[in-house]
Specification:
- This protein has 154 residues and is α+β, with helices and mostly antiparallel strands.
- The chain starts with a helix and ends in a 5-residue tail after the last helix.
- A 4-stranded mixed beta sheet has the order 3-2-1-4.
- It has one domain: Nucleotidyltransferase, domain 5 (2-Layer Sandwich), CATH 3.30.420.100.
- It has helices spanning 5-23, 76-83, 103-121, 139-149; strands at residues 32-37, 42-48, 53-59, 128-130.
- Helix content is 37%, strand content 15%.
- Strand 2 (42-48) and strand 3 form a beta hairpin.
- The chain contains 4 helices and 4 strands; from the N terminus they run H-E-E-E-H-H-E-H.
- Helix 3 (103-121) runs parallel beside helix 4.
Length: 154
């Protein structure tokens, strides 16, 4: 029997999401901030589960970034040269310089800011975060951090 690894991974994520949804409910006072991630884009919705209505939504589908921001990150050898010459540097051991954010990460941060602005405009300050079965890591965490910085509490 041939295994379909992609289907198994999706089913595992759906099972994780069901476990999260057993605990996280959106109410009128504290709606649910639901995150969905695709290969290239990220989506966020604020949902009141009592009425079944979406109160606010944001996605990276129509976001546009300037061309200079989409440039590829610098090569590792360039970053290595930039880090040399510091006092106390022992042959590359120590902190590495921060990498520039990838396009997907910049999209996640932008969607987090957009959803926070939309929520604040509708009078929503506190939400329950629903990570959608994804790990709280990378793009999901970047969206959450940007939404917190935008004024949402969770």
């Amino acid at each position: 029997m041939k295994r379909n690894i992609h289907r198994e991974k999706r089913q595992a994520r759906v099972r994780r999401h069901e476990r999260v949804r057993d605990k996280v409910r959106g109410t009128a006072a504290r709606p649910r901030l639901c995150v969905t991630r695709s290969l290239t884009h990220i989506y966020a919705q604020i949902i009141d589960d009592e009425t079944g209505r979406t109160l606010a939504a944001a996605s990276s589908l129509k976001l546009a970034f300037p061309a200079e921001e989409q440039a590829a990150p610098e090569k590792p050898e360039q970053a290595e040269k930039a880090g040399k010459g510091e006092k106390g540097d022992k042959g590359g051991k120590g902190k590495k310089p921060a990498r520039p954010l990838t396009l997907k990460m910049r999209r996640s941060v932008a969607v987090g800011k957009l959803i926070a602005e939309a929520a604040i405009a509708k009078g929503i300050k506190a939400v329950a975060f629903d990570r959608g079965g994804y790990l709280y890591h990378g793009r999901v965490a970047a969206l959450a951090k940007a939404a917190r910085e935008g004024g949402l509490e969770f």
